[in-house]
Specification:
The structure holds two protein chains of two kinds. Chain A is an alpha+beta fold. Helices cover about 25% and strands about 40% of the residues of chain A. Chain A folds into two domains: about 25-90; about 140-170 and about 205-520, Beta Barrel (Porin), CATH 2.40.160.10. Chain B is globular, with a radius of gyration of 17 Å. Chain B starts with a helix and ends with a helix. In chain B, α2 packs across α4 (about 85-95). By secondary structure, chain B is mainly α. The chains are: A alpha+beta, B mainly alpha.
Chain lengths: ~525, ~100
């Protein structure tokens, strides 16, 4: 400000000096008007200065305002943007909420609803893994009462009056859908001792729709009985029919390889199937005539020195839709060498028929055993015929419902069986009745053939068995059996050296067997 | 000797016939069946079960075993009974419905 004033003072002084220089020339005519004009100019200048000052202030204040407005505007813009993004977010959140809600709802309905069995099955399947394992088999508790009526000269002749327990756990292991392993252990406990066995251990391999391979230790696929009727809960009787018991006609089992399969040749139910196999061959307890034939795991299997081959064909003629029941007709052959190239040849036919409450089965088996030249030949035949009828539909009038419901669980049975062989080895009789090495059985004689009766070992044994089964469930049964032994006279008993004594007449025995058994 | 020769021939013939038939057949290890296929199998299985499964022993009811156990059992029973493959598939599907 002081600079401005200095400047204006200087301007004023300069103007005065200029005027005073020009003054002498004109002083005479214009002194008075100049002074007025000067004053006016000066006041105008002053005014202009003040106006300029005011303008500057106005401009500055306007600039400030503009600045303020500008910042306000940007803030508003930012605010709008924020608002927009918030709005967007809100929209997204709402959508998410809606989705979550829907999910919660569907979960709730899933939780509320019972799990579908198929869903559970697949979940459980995943839990189990692809290799599955199962224990099946059977257990049985039985009592045998076999009071001997007379003695056979020189032969052990035990009266059986004893409890037994049989436990046969079976393991099934399935590592893939084309392979199954089956293994069975067996323990039998009785008065005369304990017997353990490994009756089955094999792989079952599915090749395609028409072929399966079985490799290992298996029930003889000859006929029907060994493979399909021998388990305790499957067999309707406690004991085995004579040709599959202590005087077996074909070996009960085999170590080897099978190829098998089946197909439908006609209408549904009209099937045909085949089994061919080869194995270690038959073995006998001794080389003498009449010696018991055994499986490949028998303890005393010192006589096997050959191989075997076998074949079986089964035919099912009845179509399912005719409701005529199921009929099976089968034919089998089993041939092998038992010692030093000696042949064992056998063949058999079998049938079974099932319709409603009725079931029937039967088998005929014939075997030729080539003997060393110093012995007579050893041929054998065996058969059985069996029938049973469930009293399912029987309502005895006048009986209370409760009693009738018990009657409905009953199955009366009858079986006739027999074996013809020229001789019976004396050592087998001793072994099987518990006197021989190894206790209850020496592993030669299938335990299901055992009731203790020497009439079983008669060269021409015959037996009528009457049965009454009480079925608690399809695989839980209380079985009762009454055996009437009717051996024919004739034949010989053979010692381990081959010396034979005529059997003569053999006392008829009666036995009572009762068994409670559960199939797992 | 002659007997052996005949049985061997028979054995070889059956094996070769089996292999020939087998190579023509579709694979056993079928994929999971479609819905219609499953319905067909279950229906067929329900017809077969009372007849086929009663033949050797009393029929064991579907509820006795878990589905994975039926997979094993039917493999086992198919072997024992030489049950035709499609019938075995039908039985296992039926038994698993329980």
């Amino acid at each position: 400000m002081s600079a401005e004033r200095l400047f204006s003072t200087f301007l004023f002084a300069f103007a005065v000096a200029a005027l005073s220089l020009a003054g002498p020339a004109r002083a005479a005519d214009s002194d008075g008007t100049d002074a007025v004009a000067m004053k006016q100019i000066r006041s105008e200048i002053r005014q202009m200065r003040e106006e300029r000052k005011r303008d500057r202030e106005v401009i500055r204040s306007l600039e400030i305002k503009v600045q303020q407005l500008e910042t306000k505007d940007s803030k508003v813009q930012a605010g709008t943007q924020q608002l927009q993004s918030t709005d967007q977010k809100l929209k997204e959140t709402t959508l998410e909420l809606q989705q979550t809600n829907a999910r919660v709802k569907s979960l709730q309905t899933k939780v509320d609803a019972p799990i579908a069995p198929s869903q559970f099955a697949s979940d459980f399947g995943r839990y189990l893994g692809s290799h599955t394992f199962q224990i099946t088999g059977a257990a049985g508790f039985n009592f045998v009462y076999d009071q001997q009526s007379g003695a056979l000269d020189g032969l052990h002749h035990a009266t059986q009056n004893t409890f037994f327990f049989n436990f046969e756990p079976m393991f099934l292991y399935r590592p893939a859908d084309w392979i199954l392993f089956e293994g069975e252990l067996e323990g039998s406990f009785g008065q005369a001792g304990t017997a353990v066995d490994l009756p089955l251990a094999d792989f079952q391999i599915t090749l395609n729709d028409y072929m399966m391979i079985v490799a290992g230790l298996f029930d003889q696929p000859f006929g029907d009985w060994y493979e399909n009727q021998s388990p305790m809960w499957v067999n309707r009787f406690v004991s085995a029919p004579l040709p599959f018991g202590v005087e077996a006609v074909v070996p009960p089992s085999e170590i080897g390889l099978q190829l098998r399969g089946g197909l439908q040749w006609g209408d549904l139910g009209q099937d045909v199937d085949y089994t061919v196999w080869g194995g270690n061959g038959p073995n006998f307890s001794e080389s003498v005539p009449g010696a018991a034939i055994g499986g490949p795991t028998a303890i005393a299997s010192s006589l096997t020195n050959g191989k075997s081959i076998g074949a079986r064909v089964r035919f099912y003629p009845l179509p399912l839709d005719e409701h005529l029941g199921r009929l099976e007709l089968g034919a089998s052959t089993y041939n092998g060498k038992w010692m030093n190239g000696h042949w064992f040849n056998s063949w058999g036919v079998d049938f079974n028929y099932f319709n409603g409450n009725l079931q029937m089965r039967g088998e005929w088996v014939q075997a030729y055993r080539q003997m060393p030249s110093n012995f007579s030949q050893d041929n054998r035949q065996g058969w059985y015929l069996q029938a049973g009828y469930f009293l399912n539909g029987l309502n005895v009038p006048g009986f209370p419902d409760k009693l009738n419901s018990y009657i409905h669980r009953l199955e009366p049975l009858v079986r006739y069986s027999g074996v013809n062989q020229h001789g019976v080895a004396i050592d087998d009789i001793h072994g099987a009745t518990g006197v021989g090495v190894g206790g209850l059985q020496v592993g030669l004689i299938p335990d299901f053939g055992l009731s203790g009766s020497p009439a079983l070992f008669a060269p021409h044994s015959r037996e009528v068995a009457l049965g009454l089964d009480y079925w608690v469930a399809p695989s839980i049964v209380w079985q009762n059996e009454f055996d009437i032994e009717l051996p024919r006279a004739g034949g010989v008993f053979v010692s381990s050296t081959g010396a034979s004594t005529p059997a003569g007449s053999i006392p008829n025995d009666h036995a009572f067997l009762t068994q409670f058994t559960v199939g797992f | 000797m002659r007997k052996l020769f005949i049985t061997r021939k028979l054995f070889v013939t059956i094996v070769l016939a089996g292999v020939a038939l087998g190579s023509l057949s579709r694979p056993v290890f079928a994929q999971a069946p479609s819905k219609e296929e499953k319905r067909r199998l279950i229906l067929k299985g329900s017809k077969l079960w009372p007849v086929y499964c009663n033949q050797c022993h009393n029929a064991r009811p579907p509820g006795e075993k878990a589905p994975y156990e039926w997979d094993q059992e039917i493999m086992h029973m198919r072997m024992l009974g030489n049950i035709p493959a499609d019938d075995a598939r039908a039985l296992v599907e039926y038994l698993k419905t329980r």
